[in-house]
Write a structure and sequence with these properties.
Elements lengths: L1 H23 L8 H5 L4 E8 L2 E10 L2 E10 L2 E13 L4 E8 L4 E8 L4 E6 L12 E8 L2 E8 L2 E10 L3
Antiparallel strand pairs: 1-2, 1-10, 2-3, 3-4, 4-5, 5-6, 6-7, 7-8, 8-9, 9-10
Length: 167
């Protein structure tokens, strides 16, 4: 009788351990996309190349964010743009609409794959993300360090390291 009771208790413990392990290893853990977007808030800068720096300011606006981007070479603005970012609950992703002076509007979709890593692609490529014409993979290495890698045709085009300003 004691052996039967022991085997029953062992079976229950084994089942509970299996259930806990399976639940904790779920690859489909739901991430709070809107909450993770907050990591971008603030003033960022990046050295793009010789004599060129980029500045990106992301501020809360309504239920999303508004961003301003400037590239400055030798004290002269050479690229400038604005973007609106917001969470779209119908697709559980972040949508960005951006305009760079002198260019057409760009609409992108972004989602976090972990608490610190995200993917961004053109909105038009959302039906088949694996075949996206352009992809950016980003990672918050620290709360004040963001690394973005641009990929076109499975080839890395560039990597930028952004640093959040402390002001």
């Amino acid at each position: 009788m004691a052996m039967k009771k022991f085997l029953s208790i062992s079976g229950i413990i084994l089942f509970l351990n299996f259930f806990y392990f399976a639940h904790s290893q779920n690859p489909h853990t739901i991430l709070n996309q809107a909450g993770l977007l907050k990591q971008f808030e603030g003033n960022w800068n990046c050295e793009i190349g010789k004599d060129t720096s980029a500045y990106w300011d992301m501020e809360p606006y309504g239920s999303g964010y508004v961003a301003s981007l400037k590239y400055i070479t030798k004290g002269k603005t050479v690229k400038e743009g604005k973007g609106l970012y917001g969470y779209d609950k119908s697709i559980d992703k972040i949508v960005e609409a951006g305009i760079t002076l002198g260019k057409d509007i760009g609409v992108y979709v972004m989602w976090f794959i972990t608490d610190s890593k995200f993917v961004l692609i053109p909105y038009s490529d959302l039906p088949d993300p694996e075949k996206a014409s352009f992809k950016m993979e980003g990672e918050f290495k620290f709360p004040d360090i963001l690394v973005e890698t641009t990929i076109i045709g499975n080839k890395t085009i560039n990597t930028k390291t952004w640093t959040k300003s402390r002001h």
